[in-house]
Predict the structure.
Amino acid sequence: MKTNQTFTVIFFTRKSRSVANLLSIYVRITILGKRAEISLKRNIDAGQWDCIKGRGKGRSEEIRNLNAYLDQVQAKLLQCHGQLVQEDKIVSSNAIKMRFLGEDKVSRTLRDLIEYHNGNMVHVLKPGTMKNYYTTEKYLKRFLKSKYKQEDIHLKQLNYRFILDLEHYLT
């Protein structure tokens, strides 16, 4: 199978600004010469890093855990690449970075949905009908406050149990 894309993932380090002999670990995603870098928020002593392999040197528990983490990051980046290809989306280094960080999908909330609905329907529906929607909004806010101790909930978190709990709250 021929492909016109190059895709690489490498781990590299940069000197820490605060501590002299400490290196900060980064991952670089490259597609068609375009780079995206992510800080992994991990540090390693300069003598324990193998630049050629892009992994920690040694057999200590700390190094083994770090290398296992780097393997997980690499696998997750490959998975993100595969998902973008499968979804037939544009595959770029930034797209993979955004997918890896969870920033490519906009997460909507219940209040966003209610505000969108009420804002669009206020000129379409009669005032008596809108009053019912405003009342439903008020009850949803009270329910979220009493049951979940929060002001809002992501739509991903809504499930059958949420509906049953809301129904029980309203009765």
Summary: The helical segments are 61-86, 93-101, 110-121, 127-148, 160-170. Residues 7-101 form one domain. The first helix runs from residue 61 to 86. Strands lie at 7-15, 22-31, 34-45, 49-50, 55-56.
